[in-house]
C-alpha cells in the first residue's frame, strides 16, 4: 500500500485488538454482552436502578485490564505513531489502557477509560486505578458523586469535535478489531471515505462493509504488525 509521506492517518480500534491480551470482546461468543445485560451495566438508567451492580462490573473489568499486557498489535500501532512523519490520531472505543502501556501517545478514548472516575456533579475526571465503589468523594467538588468514567449507551462520546476534524482531513482511515455496529464510531469510515481518504479494515474476519477498500484478515497480533510493516515500507 502506498500512502504519501506526511499523510494524515486516523486509526480506530475496538475490542478485537485487545482480545489476544486476554480481554473479552462484546459480541463474540462468550463476549461481555452474552454474560451481562447492556441495559443493566451500560446505561444511565441501569446505573440509577442498581449502582452497585455497575460498580462491580467495571471493578471486574478494571482488575482484568490492570493485569493485561499489550500485544503485538498495540505495539505495532505505537511503532507506527512513532515512525510516522505526518498527523496521526488513534481513536479507541476501548476503555482499557493497553495502547498507552504499548507506548502510544496520542490516544483518544471516545468511550471513556476504566482507570478514570467521573464526577456526576461537577463533571471532573480523575485518575482511578483501584476499585471504585458508591460514595467515593470527588477531589474537585468534595461531593460523594464519583461514577465509572465510561460513556454509556444514550450518552455522548467524548471529543467528537476533535474526531470530526481528524476525519475531515484524514488521507488514510484504518479500522481495527471492531464489529462496526455502534454509532458514531461505525459511521467514521463513511465520513473518511466521503472526504477522500483511503479506507482499510483489519479484523479477524472482514465485516463486509463495502466502504473499506482493503481488508487484512486475521488475528490482530499478526495482521496489525504486517499491515504496519507494509505501510512503512510503502512510504
Ligand atoms: N483480532 C482481530 N479482531 C478480532 C479478534 C482478534 N483476535 N477477536 C475478535 N475480533 C473482532 C471481531 O470479529 C469483531 O469484529 O473484533 C470485533 C469485536 O466486536 P465487538 O465485540 O462488537 O467490539 P467493538 O466493535 O469494540 O464494540 C464497539 O460497542 O458495546 C459497545 O462500548 C462498547 O466500545 C464498544 C462498542
Keywords, please?
single chain; 235 residues; alpha/beta; Rossmann fold; SIR2/SIRT2 'Small Domain'; 2 domains; 6-stranded parallel beta sheet; 3-stranded antiparallel beta sheet; globular; binds adenosine-5-diphosphoribose
Characterize the structure shown:
With 235 residues, this protein is of the alpha/beta class. The chain has 2 domains: 1-23 and 70-111 and 158-235, Rossmann fold; 25-67 and 114-150, 2-Layer Sandwich (SIR2/SIRT2 'Small Domain'). 34% of the residues lie in helices and 19% in strands. The protein contains 9 helices and 9 strands. The strands form 2 sheets. A 6-stranded parallel β-sheet has the order 3-2-1-7-8-9, sandwiched between helices. The protein has a 3-stranded antiparallel β-sheet with strand order 5-4-6. The protein is globular. The model has no long low-confidence stretch (mean pLDDT 97). It binds adenosine-5-diphosphoribose.
Amino acid at each position: 500500500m502506498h500512502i504519501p509521506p506526511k499523510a494524515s492517518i486516523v486509526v480506530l480500534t475496538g475490542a478485537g485488538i485487545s482480545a489476544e491480551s486476554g480481554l473479552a470482546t462484546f459480541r463474540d461468543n462468550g463476549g461481555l454482552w452474552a454474560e451481562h445485560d447492556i441495559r443493566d451495566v451500560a446505561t444511565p438508567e441501569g446505573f440509577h436502578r442498581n449502582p452497585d451492580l455497575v460498580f462491580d462490573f467495571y471493578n471486574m473489568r478494571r482488575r482484568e485490564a490492570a493485569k493485561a499486557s499489550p500485544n503485538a498489535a498495540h505495539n505495532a500501532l505505537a511503532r507506527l505513531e512513532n515512525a510516522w512523519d505526518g498527523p496521526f490520531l488513534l481513536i479507541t472505543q476501548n476503555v482499557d489502557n493497553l495502547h498507552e502501556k504499548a507506548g502510544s501517545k496520542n490516544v483518544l478514548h471516545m468511550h471513556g477509560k476504566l482507570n478514570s472516575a467521573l464526577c456526576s456533579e461537577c463533571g471532573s475526571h480523575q485518575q482511578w486505578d483501584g476499585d471504585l465503589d458508591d460514595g467515593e468523594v470527588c477531589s474537585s467538588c468534595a461531593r460523594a458523586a464519583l461514577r465509572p468514567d465510561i460513556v454509556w449507551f444514550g450518552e455522548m462520546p467524548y471529543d467528537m469535535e476533535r474526531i470530526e476534524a481528524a476525519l475531515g482531513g484524514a488521507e488514510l482511515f484504518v479500522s481495527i478489531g471492531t464489529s462496526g455496529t455502534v454509532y458514531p464510531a461505525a459511521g467514521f469510515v463513511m465520513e473518511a471515505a466521503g472526504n477522500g481518504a483511503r479506507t482499510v479494515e483489519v479484523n479477524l474476519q472482514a465485516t463486509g462493509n463495502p466502504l473499506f477498500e482493503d481488508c487484512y484478515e486475521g488475528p490482530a497480533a499478526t495482521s496489525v504488525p504486517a499491515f504496519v510493516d507494509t505501510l512503512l515500507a510503502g512510504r
